[in-house]
Amino acid sequence: MKKLITSLLLVMALSAANAQQSLVKRMNPTNWWVGMKSPELQILFYGDKLAGHTLTLKAYKGVVLKKVHKVENPNYVFADLEIKPETKAGKLEFQFSDGRKQITQTYELLPKNPYRPKGVSPADFIYLLMPDRFANGDPSNDKFADMADPLMDRTSPWLRHGGDLQGVTNHLDYFTDLGVTALWLNPVIENDQPTTDEGGTQRSAYHGYGFTDHYNVDRRFGGNAAYKTMIDEAHKRGLKVIQDAVYNHVGINHWILKDMPFKAWLNQWDTFTQTSFKEPAVLDPHASAYDRRIMSDGWFMPFLPDLNQKNEFVAKFLIQHAIWTVAYFNIDAWRIDTYMYNDMAFMNRCNAALLSEYPDMLLFGESLATTVANQAAFVRNNINGLPFACNLPSTLDNQFFVAVKDALNQKYGWSDGVNRLYNLLVQDYLYKRPDLLVTYLDNHDEHRFLSVIGEDIDKYKMGLTWLMTIRGIPQIYYGTELGVKNFKDPTDAEVRKDFVGGWKEDKENKFLKTGRNQRENELYDFMKTLAQYRKTSPALTQGKFMQFMPYDDGMYVYFRYTDTSKVMVVSNTGEKEKGLDIKRFAEQLKGAATAVDVITKERVALDKLTVGPKKFFVLEIAR
């Protein structure tokens, strides 16, 4: 009898424990910290008919339960807390009571994370990589049968290839050798998406832009633990880490969308309505409300539902996740996807919250605007008369990307050829901080740079030289340092191929000098020389920028300079060899007769310098 009673008590205890575990199925944020700048925290609780319970908080010094929100869906409860400055770390105990029983749910408040983001500045050099296509460090996490997309096949350009965060960690020394100072990974957050039909082909979400659980890094990349390890190891080597953030949309398979708190969690339409992709609609003082709404509230793709950032609960969910991510993983900077499609009032609020907590972070967006002025409209700028004033510090400089291609491919003319680049930089007066713009030559959404310029190595080197020496924060895309080529034909997958050597079955290893061919080593060494020099040059990392009007059918000269350091860049984009007219540059040369060639390390006489067609010099001027 005694054994029977004991067994019954054990069963009852297990049943009670299971009931407690199953009542609250999700909590977001998954934890928080004491000592944060803002005392406010809103916790999303999700579970079966949670709204049928009364929610209270067991007394905890410094924490006040301000309000409990019950919404359209009875499976959600939102709790507003105030966490006062004197609050100590520990576990909160929430009680859910339905009048018959009371179930306790704990919530952890951690000690404040002492790590302060390093930020990214003009002194940095960013390397962008796609984790699934970079290196496979742990084949055991390549695929999972219980995920919506259980496939992995390197022979298919549209499926997952097995690259992961351990693969990145294994090659951190490659970045430091090259001269990289910051890593930007395409999103690593869980994309538990089914394959989607795009142009008649089933494609996976290997790119990472369809989140399905904000608080978990994708298992196929190694999960939260692998991301933490990668970041810790990167920091040990002096490498910063940039998080790729997406606010505008989520994946169609996001857990919240399977049972939404309310219909207004998304921007809803009677029938599927796609964004127009035309940013003038939200900048045009004469625009219709209809055109503005299509641009900002239309969905990016049918499988990427558009979040309603005007909804207070959605806004808090996204803002808190951003702060949580920085605190949990020790992120240094923040890249914001599809920036100009977001609600600008929300973005200003979100940016302000991040910068209040982490004032040294750099936030930069992606706004593929059609003009320089339109691009400037989506950052801190000097433009009057806009319908909104953005507080975003920086953006990807898409207009630089376009102008460099034109400068290298067009013949010199009044406004063509290298004058395209010159005139672009003239318009820096539109920006509060043009030096913070992130410049680039290619990325995961664009044709490979070498292919765009006709696989011309001279043009390639000139373009990289401009990238590394003109104002801004330079960024390259994985493989560009080796001259990887291709067009987006028939799809983006053609510019997202695996880094050769990242998989144990690869016959060559491009991470090693011995695995690269002669041309690849030539280009790698050129990039390395520029990058390593840039790290030590105050002129290139801190200096002012002065350019001279292009002349003589394509000669373009500019200077980067401080009180103690000066670099002169001379480019001949024309078709004939030319001498350097040093009288034009007297205000910067100030009588200097010689300079050191940064690439060859040789000293050259400026008045005897000749520059061949499609050739250039990076010259360190003695002060």
UniProtKB/TrEMBL annotation:
Signal peptide from the UniProt entry: 1-19
Which biological processes are named by the entry's GO terms? carbohydrate metabolic process
Superkingdom of origin organism: Bacteria
The molecular function GO annotations come to: hydrolase activity, acting on glycosyl bonds
Annotated InterPro entries? Cyc-maltodext_N, Cyclo-malto-dextrinase_C, GH, GH13_cat_dom, Glyco_hydro_b, Ig-like_fold, Ig_E-set
Provide the Glycosyl hydrolase family 13 catalytic domain boundaries.
Answer: 128-534
Q: Which UniProt keywords apply?
A: Glycosidase, Hydrolase, Signal
What PANTHER family would the database entry show? ALPHA-AMYLASE FAMILY MEMBER, MALTODEXTRIN GLUCOSIDASE
Instruction: Name the chain's protein.
Output: Alpha-amylase
